[in-house]
Amino acid sequence: TEIVVAVGEKASEFKAMISLNGTGSFLWELLEKGTDEADLVSAMLEKYDIGEEIAKRDVHTFLEKARTVGLLDEA
Q: Is the pTM of this model over 0.70?
């Protein structure tokens, strides 16, 4: 399990840590390497037995939630 915390302006609004599940940790590790959204989807398709639409939806949802709580800069 990986733990992440908000930084910057959002840190003052969101005073908590977030525990990521296996998929979230997988995506977070790729984000730390500078992986973009399209490559995150490709990585999900390689690692998990899911369809492209599900991978796109899940990656998009993960990124939006991460941005909302200040874990990622706004796109």
A: yes
Q: d(Cα 45, Cα 68) in Å, to the nearest integer?
A: 25
Cα 33 to Cα 69: distance, rounded to the nearest angstrom: 20
Cβ neighbours, 10 Å, residue 23: 15
CB 45 within 8 A of CB 27: no
pLDDT in tens, 45-70: 999 999 999 999 999 999 998 888 77
Residue 41 and residue 52 in contact, taking contact as beta carbons nearer than 8 Å:
yes
